[in-house]
Amino acid sequence: MNWNEFLPIPPIDSAQKYVVFQPHSDDAVWFAGGFLLKLAKAGKDVTLVTMTDGCLGSTDVSMTRERLVAIRRDEDQRAGKAMGVAKHLYLPFHDGELPHCGETTAAMVRIIRQEKPDAVLAPDPWLTYEAHQDHLNCGWSAAESMVYCNLPLYLPELPPHDVRFIAFYITGRPNQFVDITAEHEAQLAALSLFHSQFTPETLEMATQYLNLKASELGEARGMRLAEAYKVLTPLHLHTSVDSENI
Q: Is residue 1, in this structure, part of any structural domain at all?
Protein backbone atom coordinates (compact mmCIF):
# COMPACT_ATOMS: atom_id res chain seq x y z
CA MET A 1 0.00 0.00 0.00
CA ASN A 2 1.37 3.45 -0.90
CA TRP A 3 0.68 6.77 0.82
CA ASN A 4 -2.15 7.79 -1.52
CA GLU A 5 -3.92 4.50 -0.90
CA PHE A 6 -3.48 4.88 2.86
CA LEU A 7 -4.86 8.47 2.92
CA PRO A 8 -6.61 9.03 -0.42
CA ILE A 9 -7.32 12.53 -1.70
CA PRO A 10 -10.95 12.95 -2.81
CA PRO A 11 -11.65 14.43 -6.25
CA ILE A 12 -12.22 18.17 -5.90
CA ASP A 13 -15.67 17.94 -7.51
CA SER A 14 -16.87 15.04 -5.34
CA ALA A 15 -18.51 17.17 -2.63
CA GLN A 16 -22.06 18.50 -2.67
CA LYS A 17 -21.69 21.55 -0.42
CA TYR A 18 -18.75 23.96 -0.46
CA VAL A 19 -17.72 26.95 1.64
CA VAL A 20 -15.30 29.24 -0.20
CA PHE A 21 -13.21 31.68 1.83
CA GLN A 22 -11.77 34.67 -0.01
CA PRO A 23 -9.62 37.41 1.59
CA HIS A 24 -11.05 40.12 -0.67
CA SER A 25 -14.12 40.43 -2.85
CA ASP A 26 -12.50 39.52 -6.19
CA ASP A 27 -10.17 36.70 -5.15
CA ALA A 28 -12.43 33.68 -5.64
CA VAL A 29 -13.74 34.93 -8.99
CA TRP A 30 -10.22 35.66 -10.19
CA PHE A 31 -8.46 32.51 -9.05
CA ALA A 32 -11.20 29.87 -8.63
CA GLY A 33 -14.00 31.28 -10.77
CA GLY A 34 -14.01 28.58 -13.41
CA PHE A 35 -14.46 25.86 -10.81
CA LEU A 36 -17.17 27.81 -8.96
CA LEU A 37 -19.11 28.24 -12.19
CA LYS A 38 -18.75 24.52 -12.86
CA LEU A 39 -20.08 23.71 -9.40
CA ALA A 40 -23.11 25.95 -9.94
CA LYS A 41 -23.81 24.25 -13.28
CA ALA A 42 -23.70 20.88 -11.53
CA GLY A 43 -26.25 22.00 -8.94
CA LYS A 44 -23.76 22.07 -6.08
CA ASP A 45 -24.31 24.35 -3.06
CA VAL A 46 -21.69 27.12 -2.78
CA THR A 47 -21.41 29.58 0.12
CA LEU A 48 -18.93 32.39 -0.50
CA VAL A 49 -17.35 34.11 2.51
CA THR A 50 -15.60 37.46 2.02
CA MET A 51 -13.20 37.93 4.91
CA THR A 52 -12.40 41.67 4.71
CA ASP A 53 -14.20 44.86 3.73
CA GLY A 54 -11.86 45.84 0.90
CA CYS A 55 -11.36 49.33 2.29
CA LEU A 56 -7.81 49.69 0.93
CA GLY A 57 -8.11 48.28 -2.57
CA SER A 58 -8.10 51.36 -4.75
CA THR A 59 -5.47 53.55 -6.42
CA ASP A 60 -7.99 56.39 -6.88
CA VAL A 61 -6.71 59.31 -4.77
CA SER A 62 -10.23 60.76 -4.53
CA MET A 63 -11.68 57.54 -3.04
CA THR A 64 -12.57 57.22 0.65
CA ARG A 65 -12.59 54.02 2.66
CA GLU A 66 -16.29 54.35 3.43
CA ARG A 67 -17.26 54.76 -0.22
CA LEU A 68 -15.00 51.92 -1.29
CA VAL A 69 -16.48 49.49 1.24
CA ALA A 70 -20.00 50.17 -0.10
CA ILE A 71 -18.86 49.90 -3.72
CA ARG A 72 -17.03 46.64 -3.11
CA ARG A 73 -20.01 45.09 -1.38
CA ASP A 74 -22.23 45.92 -4.37
CA GLU A 75 -19.68 44.59 -6.88
CA ASP A 76 -19.20 41.46 -4.78
CA GLN A 77 -22.93 40.80 -4.68
CA ARG A 78 -23.32 41.15 -8.45
CA ALA A 79 -20.28 38.99 -9.17
CA GLY A 80 -21.51 36.31 -6.76
CA LYS A 81 -24.87 36.18 -8.52
CA ALA A 82 -23.11 35.90 -11.87
CA MET A 83 -21.12 32.96 -10.48
CA GLY A 84 -24.21 31.15 -9.22
CA VAL A 85 -23.25 31.48 -5.55
CA ALA A 86 -26.11 30.24 -3.38
CA LYS A 87 -25.21 32.24 -0.27
CA HIS A 88 -22.83 35.10 0.44
CA LEU A 89 -21.48 35.89 3.92
CA TYR A 90 -19.31 38.78 5.09
CA LEU A 91 -16.93 38.98 8.03
CA PRO A 92 -16.17 42.33 9.69
CA PHE A 93 -12.38 42.38 9.36
CA HIS A 94 -10.71 45.40 7.76
CA ASP A 95 -8.69 45.10 4.58
CA GLY A 96 -5.03 44.61 5.48
CA GLU A 97 -5.83 43.63 9.07
CA LEU A 98 -7.05 40.03 8.88
CA PRO A 99 -5.62 38.37 12.02
CA HIS A 100 -3.30 35.39 11.83
CA CYS A 101 -5.38 32.43 13.07
CA GLY A 102 -6.96 33.00 16.51
CA GLU A 103 -9.98 35.22 15.89
CA THR A 104 -9.99 34.43 12.17
CA THR A 105 -9.93 30.67 12.76
CA ALA A 106 -12.78 30.95 15.27
CA ALA A 107 -14.89 32.90 12.76
CA MET A 108 -14.23 30.28 10.09
CA VAL A 109 -15.05 27.38 12.41
CA ARG A 110 -18.35 29.04 13.32
CA ILE A 111 -19.26 29.33 9.63
CA ILE A 112 -18.21 25.75 8.91
CA ARG A 113 -20.32 24.43 11.79
CA GLN A 114 -23.31 26.54 10.76
CA GLU A 115 -23.11 25.79 7.02
CA LYS A 116 -21.91 22.16 7.36
CA PRO A 117 -19.95 21.94 4.08
CA ASP A 118 -18.36 18.80 2.70
CA ALA A 119 -15.42 20.84 1.38
CA VAL A 120 -13.69 24.18 1.91
CA LEU A 121 -11.73 26.38 -0.51
CA ALA A 122 -9.13 28.98 0.51
CA PRO A 123 -5.89 30.54 -0.77
CA ASP A 124 -2.77 28.43 -0.31
CA PRO A 125 -0.81 29.97 2.60
CA TRP A 126 2.31 28.03 1.54
CA LEU A 127 2.55 30.02 -1.70
CA THR A 128 6.17 31.11 -2.06
CA TYR A 129 6.69 34.90 -2.17
CA GLU A 130 3.09 35.77 -1.26
CA ALA A 131 3.44 39.13 0.51
CA HIS A 132 -0.20 39.99 1.29
CA GLN A 133 -0.92 39.00 4.88
CA ASP A 134 -4.68 38.84 4.30
CA HIS A 135 -4.11 36.03 1.78
CA LEU A 136 -1.68 34.21 4.03
CA ASN A 137 -3.82 34.58 7.14
CA CYS A 138 -6.97 33.52 5.32
CA GLY A 139 -5.22 30.36 4.14
CA TRP A 140 -3.55 29.59 7.47
CA SER A 141 -6.81 30.05 9.35
CA ALA A 142 -8.74 27.89 6.90
CA ALA A 143 -6.14 25.14 7.29
CA GLU A 144 -6.26 25.46 11.07
CA SER A 145 -10.05 25.29 10.92
CA MET A 146 -9.73 21.78 9.49
CA VAL A 147 -8.02 20.77 12.74
CA TYR A 148 -10.54 22.37 15.10
CA CYS A 149 -13.94 22.20 13.39
CA ASN A 150 -14.65 18.63 14.55
CA LEU A 151 -13.38 19.05 18.14
CA PRO A 152 -16.37 19.45 20.49
CA LEU A 153 -14.37 21.30 23.15
CA TYR A 154 -13.39 24.06 20.69
CA LEU A 155 -16.24 26.62 20.64
CA PRO A 156 -18.51 24.14 22.48
CA GLU A 157 -21.60 26.27 21.89
CA LEU A 158 -21.77 24.87 18.33
CA PRO A 159 -21.81 21.15 17.50
CA PRO A 160 -18.67 19.88 15.72
CA HIS A 161 -18.61 19.18 11.99
CA ASP A 162 -16.28 17.06 9.83
CA VAL A 163 -15.06 18.50 6.53
CA ARG A 164 -13.94 15.92 3.96
CA PHE A 165 -11.25 18.05 2.32
CA ILE A 166 -9.86 21.50 1.70
CA ALA A 167 -8.85 22.75 -1.76
CA PHE A 168 -6.26 25.51 -1.86
CA TYR A 169 -6.40 27.91 -4.83
CA ILE A 170 -3.56 30.24 -5.86
CA THR A 171 -1.20 27.33 -5.23
CA GLY A 172 2.29 26.56 -6.46
CA ARG A 173 2.04 22.84 -5.65
CA PRO A 174 -1.22 21.64 -7.25
CA ASN A 175 -2.31 18.04 -7.22
CA GLN A 176 -5.64 18.39 -9.05
CA PHE A 177 -6.70 20.30 -12.15
CA VAL A 178 -10.14 21.42 -13.28
CA ASP A 179 -11.11 21.84 -16.94
CA ILE A 180 -12.65 25.33 -17.15
CA THR A 181 -12.80 25.64 -20.93
CA ALA A 182 -16.58 26.02 -20.97
CA GLU A 183 -16.61 28.43 -18.00
CA HIS A 184 -13.72 30.76 -18.82
CA GLU A 185 -15.63 33.49 -20.66
CA ALA A 186 -18.23 33.71 -17.88
CA GLN A 187 -15.41 33.91 -15.33
CA LEU A 188 -13.85 36.85 -17.18
CA ALA A 189 -17.24 38.56 -17.41
CA ALA A 190 -17.73 38.22 -13.64
CA LEU A 191 -14.24 39.57 -12.97
CA SER A 192 -14.98 42.63 -15.08
CA LEU A 193 -17.79 43.57 -12.65
CA PHE A 194 -15.18 44.78 -10.16
CA HIS A 195 -14.92 48.26 -11.66
CA SER A 196 -13.36 49.71 -8.50
CA GLN A 197 -10.61 47.09 -8.54
CA PHE A 198 -9.45 47.54 -12.12
CA THR A 199 -8.68 50.25 -14.62
CA PRO A 200 -9.19 49.22 -18.26
CA GLU A 201 -5.45 48.59 -18.46
CA THR A 202 -5.20 46.46 -15.34
CA LEU A 203 -8.32 44.49 -16.29
CA GLU A 204 -6.72 43.72 -19.64
CA MET A 205 -3.58 42.58 -17.81
CA ALA A 206 -5.64 40.37 -15.47
CA THR A 207 -7.49 38.89 -18.44
CA GLN A 208 -4.27 38.15 -20.28
CA TYR A 209 -2.79 36.54 -17.18
CA LEU A 210 -5.82 34.27 -16.72
CA ASN A 211 -5.80 33.32 -20.40
CA LEU A 212 -2.10 32.48 -20.37
CA LYS A 213 -2.14 30.60 -17.07
CA ALA A 214 -5.26 28.60 -17.89
CA SER A 215 -3.77 27.69 -21.27
CA GLU A 216 -0.45 26.65 -19.72
CA LEU A 217 -2.12 24.46 -17.09
CA GLY A 218 -4.55 22.95 -19.56
CA GLU A 219 -2.08 22.21 -22.32
CA ALA A 220 0.04 20.04 -20.02
CA ARG A 221 -2.99 17.95 -19.09
CA GLY A 222 -4.97 17.52 -22.30
CA MET A 223 -7.36 20.37 -21.57
CA ARG A 224 -7.68 23.68 -23.41
CA LEU A 225 -8.02 25.73 -20.21
CA ALA A 226 -7.58 24.63 -16.58
CA GLU A 227 -7.33 25.80 -12.97
CA ALA A 228 -4.96 24.26 -10.40
CA TYR A 229 -5.67 23.27 -6.80
CA LYS A 230 -3.92 21.61 -3.88
CA VAL A 231 -6.46 19.24 -2.32
CA LEU A 232 -5.81 17.75 1.11
CA THR A 233 -7.86 16.06 3.82
CA PRO A 234 -7.73 17.26 7.45
CA LEU A 235 -5.43 14.31 8.22
CA HIS A 236 -2.86 15.73 5.78
CA LEU A 237 -2.73 19.01 7.72
CA HIS A 238 -1.21 17.79 10.98
CA THR A 239 2.05 15.90 11.53
CA SER A 240 2.17 14.79 7.88
CA VAL A 241 5.67 14.92 6.41
CA ASP A 242 4.41 13.83 3.00
CA SER A 243 1.71 16.41 2.26
CA GLU A 244 4.07 18.78 0.47
CA ASN A 245 4.69 16.24 -2.27
CA ILE A 246 1.24 14.68 -2.56
A: no
Across 206-243, b (16+ Cβ under 10 Å) vs e yields beeebeeebeebbeeeebebbbbbbbbbbebbeeeeeb
In a domain, 200, yes or no: yes
Q: Is residue 166 domain-resident?
A: yes
CATH of the domain at 143: 3.40.50.10320
The residues, any chain, with a CB within 8 Å of residue 210's CB and separated by 6 or more, are 30, 184, 187, 188, 191
The residue among 12 and 62 whose pLDDT is bigger is 12
Whether the Cβ atoms of residue 65 and residue 97 lie closer than 8 Å to each other:
no
Model confidence over 96-150: pLDDT tens digits? 999 999 999 999 999 999 999 999 999 999 999 999 999 999 999 999 999 999 9
Q: State which residues form the domain around 49.
A: 13-237
* Count: domains in the chain: 1
